[in-house]
Each structure stands twice: as C-alpha cells, then as structure tokens.
Queue: 2 jobs
Job 1
Amino acid sequence: MNAGICGLGSALPAQVITNEDLMATLDTSDEWIVRRTGIQERRWLSGSETVADLTTTACLQALADAGRSAADVDYVIVSTITADRITPGVAPEVAFRIGAHSAAAYDVAAACAGFIYALDQAAALIESGRAQLVLVCGADAMSRIVDKSDRTTTVIFGDGVGAVLVASGDYQFGLQPFELCSDGSLGDLLYVDNDERLIRMQGQEIYRNAVRCMAEATRTALTRAGMTLDDVDLFVSHQANARIIESTARELGLPDERVAMAISHTANTSSASVPLALAYCEREGLLHAGDRIVLAAFGAGLVWGAGVLTWKEEARVAA
Ligand SMILES: CC(C)(COP(=O)(O)OP(=O)(O)OC[C@H]1O[C@@H](n2cnc3c(N)ncnc32)[C@H](O)[C@@H]1OP(=O)(O)O)[C@@H](O)C(=O)NCCC(=O)NCCS
C-alpha cells in the first residue's frame, strides 16, 4: 500500500486587511506592496476566532470532499508555529471537535515548510502500515507574531488554514518520497525568539535562499520520481512573494501556466500557503484529479523541501 491525497479543505479568517488599511499605520503604499510582493490583501484573525476554529472547518471540508468519516482517521497532524496556546497543541482539540476520537493528534513545527514535512510524515505512516487515514493541516496565524510597526514583514504575512486527507491505497503513483532538507547555520536569517515573540527577517537573504533551495529540491524530487519538468502539470510552491515564485519557476524553466500563483488575496500564510494554493487552483480549474504536481516549500530554519504526487489519484484498490 502507498499513500495518496483524496480530500482538500481550507479556511480563512473573516477579517480582510487591504494594503490601504496598512497604509494607515505604516510608511508603505499599495503600489510598493503589489510591485514587490504581488500581495493585494491578507486575512487576519479577529475577535474570538482561533487557529483551531479554522483548522476544524478545513478538516471537515477535507473529509467531506473525500466522502470519508472522521471516525476512521488515525492521525491528525497540524503544522503550525502560531498555535492558540503553547500547549496543548492545535491537533488534539481539532481531532476532538471533528469527531476523530480514535486518532493520534500532534503539532509539528517546521515554519513555512511544515506542511510538506507533515505530508511526508503522513506518507511514511501509511507506507509503513501504521496508519490508513491521516489528516494533514497547515495552520498559521502570522498576524500574531508580526511586529506591526515593521513594514518589511507586516505587509507580507497573513493567516489561514489548509488541510488534506491522505489515504492508504494501491496507487499507481501516489505520493513519491519527498526531498526534505535543513541548514541550521542560517537560522538567524528568519526567527522569532522567546522574549520578543516577533518575526525578525533578513528579507533579501531569505529571498535568495528560497529560490535556490526550492529549485534544487524540486529537481531532486523529480529525479527520485523518475520524472522531468516536462511531466509536471502544476508547480505549487510556498506562496511567500510573487517574485520568489516567478524566480524559482524561471530557474526551473517552467512556463507561467504551469505555476500556481495564489498569493494576491492571502499573502504568506506560512505552513498554510501550499494547501491554500492547492485549494485556489482547484477552485479556479487549474488543478484536476490525475494531474502530476510538484509541491515545494521553504522556511525559517532554514528548512525546505519538495515532493511529487498525483493529485487525487484513484486507488486501484482502496484500503
Ligand atoms: C521583504 C521583501 C518583500 C522586500 O523586498 P525587496 O525588494 O527585497 O526590498 P528591499 O529589502 O531591497 O528594500 C527596498 C526598499 O524598500 C523599503 N521597504 C521595505 N518594505 C517596504 C514596504 N512595505 N513599503 C515600502 N517600502 C518598503 C526598504 O526599506 C528599502 O528602502 P531603502 O532603499 O530606502 O533602504 C523581499 O525581500 C522578500 O519578499 N523577501 C523574502 C521574505 C520571505 O519570503 N519571508 C518568508 C520566508 S518563508
């Protein structure tokens, strides 16, 4: 048995923050933000809204999309660096709220690359026979940790959640082994420390490394899967900055029509960005069952990676 994605869900906070809204408190402009990042607006949590609320909605959607029951879920894995509390994590609350009462549930922290790290864990659990059905969520509220007086970070981050349901089955292709990497020597380029609890970032260095790392990991993941870029229907990378996505695609030689660009209304939602981009592409008719796709992500650590899979592939024999 191997692993395949069979359901997708997403959720965004109600509150929309436009570039004009940020101009009220920051020395910035809509023109600068759009030209340098491709971002027009982002969503931020407000009132009593929590990461667990959004994650619950996204998970219920993913289950409904796949026509599966929460009672059958073996693991709920939530990738987040902005959980509602330091402990417990988001995952146990979500497992309880969706009715996954027999599931193991835990959070993972690999910053903006966390979703693909968690997805690889889900595949490993399934391939080893330890699980049949796993919910994998990317869930972050970056508005909680941006310094609202820092124009270089406040404008680029947003909040949101995406979730996929990963199922065991006899898939012809399924989820191929992911290429996951780290380089702790560059940890000071992007961090949040315990005292301050605010994002500090060297933007240009992060930019350069993001392009290099995502392009390299993509090539390696494709080689492992016995594929070339010509076989890829859609490249779905971390949505950090439109220019990072464009530069990475250019480095790989991928044309615009095979590159997911879903940043304009959500901004950089950290580990939620890849599943939110998947949801956007599916909604817009750019992603179809059976498509061969590459996921790539990059984040603080540094941590990054890429993986190849067939989108919503039909299992020859379902588990
Ligand atoms: C942050 C980022 C958007 C800045 O864009 P940039 O084109 O590199 O801009 P620079 O840092 O060179 O700054 C250029 C100028 O714009 C200014 N600037 C920065 N943010 C600004 C803003 N929001 N509005 C207006 N001006 C801004 C800078 O202060 C600088 O001014 P100066 O020339 O007078 O010093 C870009 O570096 C980036 O996206 N980096 C990666 C960030 C990221 O993805 N982080 C998460 C990784 S998971």
Job 2
Amino acid sequence: MDRKYKNLCSPLRIGKTVFRNRMFSAPMGGTDISNDGCIGDKSKSFYELRAKGGAAVVTVSELMVHPATDGSHAYHLDESILNSLAQATYAADAIRRHGAIPSLELSHSGQFAGTYMTDKNKQKSMNQWGPSDGVRADGVPVKALTKEMIQEIVGAYGHVAGLAKRAGFGLLMVHGGHGWLINQFLSPLFNKRDDEYGGSLENRCRFAIEVLQSVREAVGPDFPVEFRLSGDEFVEDGYHLDEGIRIAKMLEPYCDIMHVSAGTYQKTFGITHPSMFEEHGRNVYLAAEIKKHLSIPVSTIGGLNDPAQLEEIITSGKADIVYMGRALLADPFMPQKVMENRDDEIVRCLRCFTCMAERATTSTRRCTVNPLIGREFEGDEVYPAAHPRKVMVAGGGPGGLYAAYTAARRGHDVTLYEKEAKTGGILKSEQALPFKHEMYELAETYRLFCEKAGVRIVTGTTVTKELCEQEKPDALIIAVGSSPIVPNIEGKERAVIVNNYYLEKDKVTDDVVILGGGLAGCECAVHLGREGKHVHLVEMRDALAVDANIRHRPLLLKELEKTVTVHTGLRGTRITEEGVYCLNKDNEEVLIPGTSVILAVGQRSNPCDELLDGAPYVRVIGDANKVSTITNAVYDGYHAALDIQ
Ligand SMILES: Cc1cc2nc3c(=O)[nH]c(=O)nc-3n(C[C@H](O)[C@H](O)[C@H](O)COP(=O)(O)O)c2cc1C
C-alpha cells in the first residue's frame, strides 16, 4: 500500500523493541484512581482505546514513585496493596493486545505535591518537598529533601520500574520536565542547593542521572527508557534552550529516547500545553535543536494534530517520534486513519481545554468533540439497531450532525434538515477567527461523517409540525440550537451580531466597541485586537469570560491584556455613531467611543414546542434544550441516537 504519510507511518526500532509507527500517545493521567492508588477500570479502558486507535505507544500516567514525599499524582505501584500490580498488569495487557507498546510514566511532583487534588485545602496542608527550602508563590512552605531522602526516592524509582516491567510495560518514561521534582533539581530557579545536587549543571543533573541509573539497574540493558525533558523552562531564572541542550547531552548515556517538551505546569501552562492562541507545534524547534546534539531518537510534542505537519517533522529530521495528547482525546483513531490514508476523517482537537479543566475540577475525562472520552468502559461500540427506524434530525449544528451520524451508523434511515443553506450551526461563525478554525472545521468533519454514513442532508428547510405529519418519522431529534440575544437598546440595528461577524466583517471598523464580555465577545476581541484594531470591550459584570473553563479563561484574559481596552461594570444603553453610551454603577452615563459596534450578549434557546409531538420518540438536545457548550450538544446527540429503540 502506498501510504500518504510514509515516514510518519514507518516503524522505529530501538534495541529489541519495534514501535509500529511514529505516533505515540502522550501521558494523560490523573483520573479514575482508586483510593488506595490503583488504576481504575475506566482508565484501563481509556488507555485501551488509544491502542485500538493505532498509536504505537500508549503512555499510562502519572505514577507517583514515592508516596511518602509526594501526593499529587495519586496513582502508584506498590506490591503491598492487593490490586496494585494486578491493575497495572491489566492496563498493560489492554494496550498490548492491540499491537501498541504500553509505557508507564514515573514521576514525583516534589514541591508541587497535591496539584491534581480536587480538594485544594488538603493540597495546601501537605508537606512539600523540593530541592531547597523556600516558599512557593502561593505562600506554601517547601522543605529541602535531605540526602537520605534523595537516595530513598532514587531507590523508589528503581523499585517501581522493576514492578512496571513485571506488569508488562515495554517502555518507561521518566518525567523530568514540566516543573516536577526532577525538573526542580535541573532548574536554577528551584535548585539552590550547595551540595553535590546543586550549583553547577553537572550537580543539578546528578539526581536525574541517579534516577535513570536506578531505573536501568531494575529493568536491564535491553529495556527502553525515555526521559521527558522541558527543552526550555521559559521562565526567568529557569534554564533555557542552550542549557536544555547541555542537560540532554549529559543524560543521553542513561536513556534511549529523549522526549523534548517545554515549560512548566505551574508557570507556562499555555506553552506546555500549547493553547489555541499558539502556533501548532510551537515547541518543535526545541526538539529539533536538541536532536542536532544527540544520537539517540528524540521525540517532540505540543499542539500537534495535523498529519502533514507530523510527516514534515519526521521527514526533515526535526524529531524521530511525535507524541500527541489532546489530539488523541479528540480522535483516538487518528493514527489508524493516518495509516489508512483517511486523514480527511480526523476529528481535530480544538485546544479548548475542556479536558484539562475537567481533570482539575472533577477528576473526570471529557473532550468537547469526542463524547466517548472517559466513557469507554461503558462501551465504545455503536451497535446496529435491532429495528431500523425512520429518523428525522432537525438542525445541522454539531449536536444534530453527531446525532444523525450516530443514528445512521446504527442502520437507521436518517434525514437531517437544516434551515440555512449550510450545516454547521453556530460553528460557522468560528471561521472568522483563525485560532478557532478547527472549531469551524469540526462541523465540516461531522458533515462528512454523516455523508459517509448515508445521512440525507436537506438544507434550506425548517422542520415544522406539518413536515413531521407528512414524513411520519419514528424518531425526531430536535437540535434547533439557539439564537443570539439582541438587547432592546436604542441604535441596536447599527451593530453587528457577533455570530454574523464572519458575514459582515466589512462593517467592523478600526475603532470597535464590543458589547458583552462573555466567551464569544472576549474571543472576538482578541481576534480584532490581533488584527490591529482598537478594541473596547464592555461588560456589565465585574469579571470577563465567566463562561469559559478554568484552563482557557486565564489564557484568554492574558491575550486580552495584550491589545484590548476592557471596561467592566458598565451597562450599554444606546448605540450611536460616536460609540456606545453606558451607565456605570453610580448611574452616570459614559461614552465608550467607537465607529462600529459588535453585540455579544449571549444566546437563547430556539423555541421547539410545536415539534414535541412530531414523532413517537422525541429528544431535544444541545442548545435547544439549554444553552451550553459544544461538549454537551455532541454528547446529547450521541446518546439521543443510541437511545432510539
Ligand atoms: C488531560 C491531560 C492530562 C495530562 N496528564 C499528564 C500527565 O499525567 N503527565 C504528564 O507528563 N503530562 C500530562 N499531560 C500533558 C501531555 O502529556 C502533553 O505534554 C501536553 O498535553 C501537550 O501535548 P498536546 O498538545 O498534544 O496535548 C496531560 C495533558 C492532558 C491534555
């Protein structure tokens, strides 16, 4: 077979281990862990799906090697706990049986112990051990590890490495990046020791080398070991690429793969996990530079989701392996689709951070575009329906498209009706924002899925009671979405509605006022600011983007700071050719000047009561049910289709 992405699909041999391609699944841990620290069944199924999806390696994470001095990544391996080794073995089995190599990430969070705990108070009351005494930015005291404790931790790495090998893992990733303990030792920012573990670069690398030696001793010479390094910490007083290269060179003799990531979890979150405001692959240059100085294979990571870009990385020799995290949440079958030249079917990650936000707040796995993530254990198969039905879907937004696709996969006879000329619903408006183009493309991908699954798509047609009476469907899924709220203020007809910005760009001048500082208004403001316009953003409440998730929001606010003038606590009362007149909290009128205005004050569910008796089976989904997120619309759509009997 002539593979489109030959180099990306080519196997890689390291010692006696053959990796089936160059697409590896990155560590994504921290959820579904039992109270005694074992991997839960949900996690096992999650990892298994990644292996089924064609990744060459699936990394199970994040194993805490020394619980006595750690506490963040609550998963650990401990033979004194009855199920510990068994659950790890089942996890490794589940990956291996689909042809992938199971890898395990070994970690210690050092002075950031407790980061992933949902109980933040408990986290703060824990002992925090780091290379040096100090006080964290959040005021939590850190105690320096003694040399005896260091030796105990080094020994623990070896001990769990041996257990991991026994459990059937075929690769180990020692986490030396992202601000965790090994990184703390490598970094002049954290490491102020004056003994043989601090000071010179050689001394700062000592702990990492001892850990790698301890692991090697436990697993033997033929077992591949990978070191995860932040190529650049991107913080003042931390190390930068020049030193990253020197660190990599010093560690090279002790490992088989150098994995080059970037930054720290605590300070550069949006670089370590490149946000939608960053270039795809913005950290690849770090791997490429480091690779020039090493002879072992180098892996790269960060915001990668496009096979053409991945192929270029491998072909040009920037890296030997590409790791992906979020891209494989969005589409676990991405590697298999690449292998089969079906790259047009890849569902791209939006970098919306629903995954990381849910992990931090509820310890669950969620993905905006993949309703199955976190629910694999409940079954990821879409089985044929016992009784194929005539299904009507009203509305071609993301929820409606996903419902139609799922119903058609089950063998139902599905027609989707969209009142506008094109499917996509609210996502169509995202095409105007370059950093959200994947969100726009999502609707196109779902439409392609519908077409391939045999859904008839009828555009320019509104589903009415009469249409239902005429068509007599067995099932009706109502996905009619929501419409923008237009406040009843003087001059409102002068304004462009944010959802229509993509159609009416030419009405937006260089001095623009955006009324409404929710997610949509803020993201539009960032875009216009990036285009060089003078943007005033007006919000009634005291805070912006309160509807954004906890990971995306701080990054969005940071972007706003760069170009946008923000006014909170102001209520718009009239729009004139001078700008927007507002009332402040003291009921005084203020003018926010601008020659054009965008309204972004939220959405309201479209009415659908007349359709509720349109079929024996009726389900209202997504925004039509309750204005919410794409995540919920897609999830609703998927289940509405599965529930048709
Ligand atoms: C939900 C989620 C969980 C993660 N958990 C871990 C982890 O346990 N250990 C780790 O080293 N990195 C973790 N990461 C970081 C990823 O391994 C990766 O470095 C980062 O997401 C950037 O890659 P991406 O842009 O392909 O997602 C996690 C990322 C995500 C999205």
